[in-house]
Design brief:
Elements lengths: L2 H21 L4 H6 L1 H20 L4 H4 L5 H13 L6 H23 L6
Helix pairs in contact: 1-3, 1-6, 3-5
Length: 115
């Protein structure tokens, strides 16, 4: 793994912890109604996808339990659907994909604290 990819994974972990913290207790109703909340949550989620797009090609092979295509596709939908975000998909990423990502990134970084 390159130093650059290691740094990317660290940033991904930071964004994942931030998104998890922001999303704590979120409801679909709040997410669809509160634009400021949307922006605060979608930024770190989009950055996770951006890192997944730019990570070295060997990294997904080293860490196959991370859903790299899902995060890449999610980022593309966030940034290219131009105001037509399906917030039920965002909720699915928050409740299903994000916790799994955090577990895998904790393993990589040896972090024993639960975010």
């Amino acid at each position: 793994m390159t130093v650059q990819d290691n740094e990317r994974l660290k940033k991904m972990y930071t964004f994942a912890k931030d998104a998890s913290s922001i999303a704590e207790g979120v409801t679909l109703e709040r997410l669809t109604a509160d634009k400021a909340y949307q922006y605060s949550l979608l930024y770190p989620l989009g950055q996770i996808g951006e890192i997944a797009i730019n990570i070295g090609s060997d990294i997904p092979k080293l860490f196959p339990n991370i859903e790299w295509p899902d995060w890449r596709g999610f980022r593309n939908r966030l940034f290219h659907d131009y105001g037509t975000i399906d917030f039920s998909i965002v909720m699915e990423m928050i409740t299903e994909a994000l916790p799994l990502l955090l577990i895998e990134l904790q393993k990589i970084h040896g972090d024993t604290q639960v975010p």
